[in-house]
Design brief:
The complex is a heterodimer of chains A (about 350) and B (about 550). Chain A is mainly alpha-helical and about 350 residues long. Chain A contains 17 helices and no strands. Chain A folds into two domains: about 160 residues, no CATH class; about 150 residues, no CATH class. The N and C termini of chain A lie far apart (about 50 Å). With about 550 residues, chain B is of the alpha/beta class. Chain B folds into four domains: about 200 residues, Rossmann fold (3-Layer(aba) Sandwich); about 160 residues, no CATH class; about 120 residues, Fumarate Reductase Iron-sulfur Protein, Chain B, domain 2, CATH 1.10.1060; about 45 residues. In chain B, about 35% of the residues lie in helices and about 15% in strands. Classes of the chains: A mainly alpha (about 350), B alpha/beta (about 550). Chains A and B meet through helix 1 of A and helix 6, strand 16, helix 9, helix 12 and helix 13 of B. The structure holds iron/sulfur cluster (2 copies). The site of one iron/sulfur cluster has 16 residues of chain B, from helix 9 and helix 10.
Chain lengths: ~350, ~550
């Protein structure tokens, strides 16, 4: 398509995609620091590994597609995918699973659909879900938060766990891994414990799982930063968290003994990360403001439903992917009213 | 806000429009000095079409002497404008010349060589008693003066002065918003000639029969607003309203919204909601035409940007080459990067500085590379929605882009492509630096072309059908005649061979056949519609179309 080379506007452009992505990476840092604090070096190793694999995979795909690799790699979107994937998986995940997940995310989910901006599904979450359904054991084997364990893994032990699949000498797997609070909650509720009984365990902090709640708080800080920098708008996080709180609140009011209190849903699992960093992925989310409200709320409700009645302990990834599928349709039905079209305009007097 | 401020007329309620941008306004650069008159150039180039509508009808010939203010082309139809000689001299050529148009194409222009005397032609008499004159008379004067919208649209003003008998106009809005960065010609006009602008506004009010006049000025022009307030004190029906600075509040529909809260319907004009909107420059030109009998032959042009040495405002004759105005502004600075006609948001880059200033040319912007850097190769759209956040029309630019790129014009129109005002807000904020406006212009042009193709195909189809019916009718008539003839022949009549009349006809027919055969042998066919030039063929087609369209109503 031939165009005249110079087109209005002739201004210096204030925004840049690379900078938007860099801000997302920056905003992830507090949450990542908290993850490292509570769950050890495995998180860092995973991030480094995922980043390297993602960049290599993207460069390779672009080479195959005959496109210049540098501009695409330097837009940093691949790193965002890699980091989101790495903070979602257990810090003990064997290296080859990270490899499989990332290659799937970058090559299949992103590039087979046309590359940057064209992919209907969130690549990080698609990679995560692929692993979750194929390797559920490895994907749910989390470390206990450091405050609860007598054997926090050292850096070299983490390396050994990830690359050799070997627990540290003298320790069994069971000694170093632990079910996540969401898992525990689900299992114990299944065994007819009451919430009060379940909360006796030292696993619980002030509102969510101990350690987890603080990871959530630090991701929240990053999310607020993104809002402040206008990288994201309030619509999706507010709708998603609001809907989740609403659903949790209703059930909790009906029977607080068998339904976890609303804050639990907010600060355990991937809720905060999902609301601010994953559901807001612009490429795969709704793009109209009203559509974003619908989209966010639907994710929130789905998360509650899957957590409460579904087969998997956490549900952010599934919910996001499902709504990715619905996003174009939602967008189509939530178009804003265009200026001068019926239904608008105030009359004077 | 102080209590006193509450009692000033600014306390009127204002409305918002969606989106928009707060841009660095860069007005200071060019408002330091009063407007200067640019010298008369040796040669003026006057495009015959400086306005929206039909090109003007030329009245002069090469070699003819003209006087300043003399009519050299008259309006050609209702939506068209008159053109006058900006100075005295000689018409040296009527020729194609590159005109300020985004296409960079040449168009017919009158070239006048100045004689240096700047001698005026005789002008029509002033109308100091305009308030008692018939609006039609004033409209005719404005039409004669060649006044067009001077805010950039260049729509013939006399048309907007005739909103139609069934449309009651209650409000005249005078647009002094001047929302584009860098441009200050309206600002200085209001500072220096506020009384003229107000006089023009009152004349227009009288012509359209409006009850009140609202003058909208952005709050980054306090001097202009103060001058206008003072001048407006003559009439209590004029209200000068200071509005918040937000691009594009000077867009016609946006300004109407801000001042009155009314949304002009999509694809509609303000007159449909009882409002008429004119730019301050237009109002001043109307006053010149009515009060002095002076046609529109000059305008204030802002020369600005880091790429000119001495940014300023110049009163330039229409037809002055851009290059001479740049010279008047101290010439180019070494890092001049582009030459833009208009502002940074909606102006277009000129291919070279030989193009003339037209009636709508409000600004020559010469940015440096730092002011207008190359945005670089566009990246993929990440659907971040920033474009939609700033679109003043509340479109979804990302979706429009998607469909325009996919060349799905129907979907693009379904997403209200034609409501886009090409303000550039979306492209300005796009982090992927996608030239969105360019895509929309392209899509609009394509859609128009397609629409025209459709219409043409429809016409051809109708023409064909009409032809078929005609042939069938002729055929049946012929058969009927034959039958009749046969019946006559079968009837006991005289021997054809002995009937002298019939014998003569028979001989003539034979002669004609022989001649035809002879011509055919030489390769000449007698059909007078063969071997037409394409232009002739078009004419024939057009005539045919007219002929075949007409009977539809009578059938
Ligand atoms: S601002 Fe640019 S990248 Fe963002 S949605 Fe609009 S077109 Fe796409
Ligand atoms: S150029 Fe068109 S789509 Fe873009 S912001 Fe302006 S009106 Fe909206």
């Amino acid at each position: 398509m031939a165009f005249p080379t110079l087109s209005s506007p002739h201004t210096a452009r204030p925004n840049e995609t690379r900078r938007v992505m860099a801000e997302v990476l920056l905003a992830l840092l507090p949450g990542i620091a908290a993850l490292v604090w509570y769950f050890g070096w495995g998180v860092v190793i995973n991030i480094a590994l995922a980043s390297a694999v993602a960049v290599a995979a993207e460069a390779a795909v672009l080479a195959l597609r005959g496109r210049p690799a540098l501009p695409a790699v330097s837009d940093l979107s691949t790193l965002v995918t890699a980091w989101l994937f790495a903070v979602s998986v257990p810090p003990t995940l064997p290296w080859w699973l990270t490899l499989v997940g990332i290659v799937f995310a970058v090559v299949v989910v992103k590039h087979l659909y046309g590359g940057m901006g064209q992919n209907p599904f969130n690549p990080a979450m698609a990679g995560y879900v692929l692993l979750l359904v194929s390797y559920p054991v490895q994907m749910t084997a989390w470390l206990p938060p450091s405050v609860l364990t007598e054997h926090p893994l050292t850096f070299s032990q983490s390396l050994a766990v990830i690359f050799q699949g070997a627990p540290p000498a003298g320790l069994a797997w069971d000694a170093i891994t632990q079910a996540t609070p969401l898992d525990v909650m689900r299992q114990k509720l299944g065994l007819s414990y009451t919430i009060a009984e379940i909360r006796q365990s030292p696993l619980w902090g002030d509102f969510g799982g101990r350690g987890w709640e603080w990871v959530g708080n630090w991701f929240l800080l990053g999310g607020v930063y993104l809002l402040w920098r206008r990288v994201i708008t309030w619509h999706i996080p507010a709708a998603m968290l609001g809907a989740l709180l609403f659903a949790a609140g209703v059930f909790w009011l009906v029977d607080p003994n068998t339904h976890p209190f609303p804050a639990f849903h907010l600060f355990t699992g991937g809720t905060i990360l999902g609301a601010f960093f994953i559901a807001t992925d612009p490429v795969t989310a709704c793009t109209t403001p009203r559509g974003q409200l619908v989209y966010g709320a639907a994710i929130g409700l789905l998360v509650y439903a899957i957590r409460s009645w579904g087969g998997y302990p956490d549900a952010v990834a599934f919910s996001v992917l499902l709504l990715n599928l619905a996003a174009p349709t939602i967008d189509n039905y939530t178009r804003p009213r265009v200026f001068g079209h019926a239904g608008g305009g105030q009359r004077e007097d | 806000m102080t209590l006193a401020a509450l009692h000033t007329p600014t306390a009127r309620r204002l409305w918002e429009f969606h989106g928009g941008l707060h841009l660095p306004d860069h007005k200071r650069e060019s408002t330091g000095a009063p407007v200067r008159r640019a010298p008369v150039p040796a040669r003026l180039v006057l495009p015959l079409q400086q306005h929206i509508g039909m090109p003007s009808h030329l009245l002069v010939q090469p070699g003819q002497a003209v006087l300043k203010g003399q009519l050299i082309a008259r309006p050609n139809g209702q939506v068209s404008a008159a053109l006058h000689a900006p100075t005295s001299g000689t018409v040296v050529a009527i020729a194609e010349h590159v005109v300020p148009h985004p296409s960079g194409l040449a168009a017919p222009c009158v070239v006048i060589e100045s004689d240096g005397h700047d001698a005026w032609a005789e002008l029509p008499p002033p109308m100091p008693d305009w308030a008692t004159r018939d609006p039609a008379e004033l409209r005719e004067r404005v039409r004669w003066a060649g006044v067009v919208g001077m805010g950039g649209a260049a729509f013939p003003s006399s048309v907007k002065l005739a909103p139609g008998p069934d449309r009651e106009i209650h409000t005249l809005i005078v647009n002094g918003a001047e929302c584009e960065p860098y441009i200050t010609c309206d600002d200085l006009l209001m500072r220096e000639h506020a009384a003229r602008v107000i006089a023009g506004a009152l004349i227009i009010r009288h012509v359209v029969g409006a009850r009140r006049v609202l003058v909208g000025i952005e709050d980054n022009k306090p001097e202009a607003a103060a001058a206008m307030r003072r001048a407006a004190a003559v009439d209590c029906r004029i209200e000068v309203v200071v509005i918040p600075t937000k691009y594009p509040s000077g867009g016609e529909k946006q300004l109407v919204r801000v001042l009155t809260g009314v949304e002009v319907p999509s694809h509609g004009i303000p007159a449909q909601v009882g409002i008429v909107c004119h730019n301050v420059g237009t109002a001043a030109a109307v006053a010149d035409a009515v009060l002095d009998g002076r046609p529109l032959i000059s305008r204030i042009v802002t020369l600005t940007g880091g790429g000119v040495r001495e940014p300023c405002n110049l009163e330039a004759l229409i037809g002055t080459p851009a290059r001479e105005l740049v010279a008047q502004a101290g010439g180019y600075a070494p890092d001049a990067a582009k030459l833009i006609l208009g502002g940074p948001m909606m102006g277009f880059a000129l291919p070279d500085d030989g193009v003339p200033i037209t009636k709508a040319a409000n600004c020559l912007l010469v940015p440096t590379t730092a002011e207008s850097p190359d945005p670089g190769p566009p990246l993929a759209c990440i659907r971040c929605g920033r474009c939609a956040d700033v679109c003043p029309v509340e479109l979804l630019p990302q979706q429009l882009y998607w469909w325009a790129r996919a060349k799905d014009l129907d979907r693009a129109q379904d997403y209200d492509l034609f409501d886009c005002i090409e303000c550039g807000c979306c492209a300005h904020v796009c982090p992927s630096h996608i030239p969105l406006v360019q895509y929309y212009r392209y899509a609009k042009t394509e859609a128009w072309a397609k629409e025209q193709d459709k219409r043409r195909a429809e016409q051809a189809r109708r023409r064909h059908e009409a032809r078929v019916t005609r042939l069938e009718r002729q055929e049946s008539e012929r058969k009927a005649k034959l039958r009749k003839k046969k019946e006559e022949l079968d009837a006991p009549a005289g021997d054809p061979g002995t009937d002298p009349k019939k014998a003569a006809i028979q001989a003539a027919v034979e002669r004609a056949a022989a001649k035809k055969a002879a011509l055919a042998a030489q390769g000449v066919t007698p059909a007078n519609t063969a071997d037409l030039s394409p232009a002739q063929q078009r004419q024939v087609d057009a005539a045919e179309a007219r002929r075949t369209v007409a009977p539809e109503g009578t059938d």
